[in-house]
Amino acid sequence: MAHLLDGSTLADQVKSDVSAALDAWTAEGHRPPYLSVVLVGTNPASEAYVRGKERDAAEVGIETDTIRLEADIAEADLLEQVEDLNADPSVDGLLVQLPLPDHIDDRTVIDAIDPAKDVDGFHPQNLGRLLLGNPSFIPATPYGIVEMLDRAEIDVEGMNAVIVGRSNIVGKPLATLLMQRDRNATVTVCHSRTRNLTAHTREADLLVAAVGRAHFIGADQVQDGAVVIDVGINRVDDDSREKGYRLEGDVDFDAVEPRASYITPVPGGVGLMTRAMLLQNTLTAARQNADA
Ligand code: NDP
Fold it and tell me: pLDDT band at residue 182, thresholds of 50, 70 and 90?
């Protein structure tokens, strides 16, 4: 039976550390950190994520402001809004909730964010610094995963780490973090063109699923004793639930759990860590802003 990597407990630890650091920071006479969130349109999942971010921030004493913009806003007007927030010294952290409507290019908007306020860590300057192993804002999901491993005292040095999924927000930055000299895992990144995926995943001491397909990883894909991290958040129709759906991970938890040494649940795993690491990044941004 696997140990459960409980995102709720571990994220509470992160939040309590951020909250304590923030109290010490304000006791020194600094104002509380300030996070601006830009939400374009009314995508229900994005609305829910933004509400979660507002709640988390309030919990630790970070001030937030959500700027809600119409779904048909012109890209140029959105860029102007970003420029205004970049120029506002009272804004420490700034994020634009993704995905954006189809007529707006996500990359153009991310590139416009001041890298010093880029608490999502998606700006090319931050991703480049991450690759080089220099201090940077780290995207919250991979940051949450390594924080989770650290807090559970799982040392990945020398492990075969296999990541399924190569997105810019999860797979690629996580591969970078795991292969750095302070972590020393041997990393394989798989994707939809990988031949014989199971041959790779069965070699994994640390298996990370970031695919976006419910129950994609079954027991046959997992080596006995593997540490299994499930990033996936998939809505599966379920009439028995009030909302009409339930959330499932990319890993078939019930099948894989008996083989794994550690496993994250969905919900209640990586998603909660992701939310907590945004708070950590916002505190870092405030400190840097004060020093600038
Ligand atoms: P993307 O859609 O950007 O990437 C999915 C990756 O999975 C791609 O690299 C894709 O390969 C790969 N893939 C798809 N099908 C297969 C297959 N059959 N075999 C092997 N690889 C495959 O997704 P994200 O990285 O944004 O998100 C992944 C999941 O994680 C989603 O469920 C998302 O909701 C969730 N998520 C959860 C977060 C959290 O906080 N817990 C945060 C962010 C995301 P290719 O590149 O070849 O297309």
Answer: very high
User: Do the Cβ atoms of 266 and 285 come closer than 8 Å?
Assistant: no
pLDDT tens digits along 134-146? 999 999 999 999 9
Rounded to the nearest integer, the mean pLDDT of the chain is 97
From 97, 138, 192, the mutation candidate for ligand 1 (largest count of ligand atoms within 8 A of CB) is: 192
At residue 272, the pLDDT reads: 96
pLDDT at 213 over 90: yes
Closest to 111 in 3D by CA, of 89, 101, 126, 99: 126
d(Cα 35, Cα 33) in Å, to the nearest integer?
7
All structural domains of the chain, each given as residue ranges with its CATH number in brackets, are 30-114 (3.40.50.10860), 140-272 (3.40.50.720)
Instruction: Name the residue of 167, 229, 248, 281 whose CB sits within 8 Å of the most ligand 1 atoms, as the mutation to test its pocket.
Output: 167
Ligand 1 mean position, distance from CA 178 (Å): 18
